[in-house]
């Protein structure tokens, strides 16, 4: 742990934060009336990670324009930081991009997922009555409540709870709740549902092959990008 010893800012109300990045933990005292953007600058000075490359999370993605007081940051709060330095990105990005383009080209040859038989039997049940409302053309941060009212591949009800402090995704059904470390999820894929493009079907890859995909249907479109960013813990370059 690294302390910045910054409690000399007289007259300003400070809050103690635990900034976590790449298994490094930094104890930071920071002004409650500073914005998310200013916190990113502070994180830059600690980690060398440029603000533009940072994904900072506190109960979802940290808004840059709001102060820590406005988003109710309290003493001892954990701030999760995701991102790679420029050197890390340059080292891995070129081969990774090529591989991703190959995968995308392969996917484009296949018929849409929602027409495949295994998915049709769930989708043909229609939209769940208690599904969360969707907002088309908008990207939103993850809600503070679990995402609920969705189906899994057996047609049972499923909810997703994002435990950012524990770096876990909880997949809950009537029978049980699976608590998965975010780092154990290899990939997340999604596709809009034909005829209901404001909802997606989404899969979390829990093992080495496609057979390990855990499918979730009727995910509101506005949360799709936030789910991918949060679970994969990395920048989407495509």
Automatic annotation (TrEMBL):
Q: Which GO terms describe its molecular function?
A: cadherin binding; RNA binding
Q: Per its UniProt record, what Gene3D superfamilies does this chain match?
A: Phosphatidylinositol 3-kinase Catalytic Subunit, Chain A, domain 1
Recorded hits in InterPro entries, A to Z, give: UBFD1, UBFD1_C, Ubiquitin-like_dom, Ubiquitin-like_domsf, Ubiquitin_CS
Listed SMART domains = UBQ
PROSITE patterns, from UniProt?
UBIQUITIN_1 (PS00299), UBIQUITIN_2 (PS50053)
Q: For the Ubiquitin-like domain, which residue ranges apply? A: 15-82
Q: Which domain of life is it from?
A: Eukaryota
User: One short Pfam family name for this protein?
Assistant: ubiquitin
What is the protein's given name?
Ubiquitin domain-containing protein UBFD1
Q: Which organism is it from?
A: Colius striatus (Speckled mousebird)
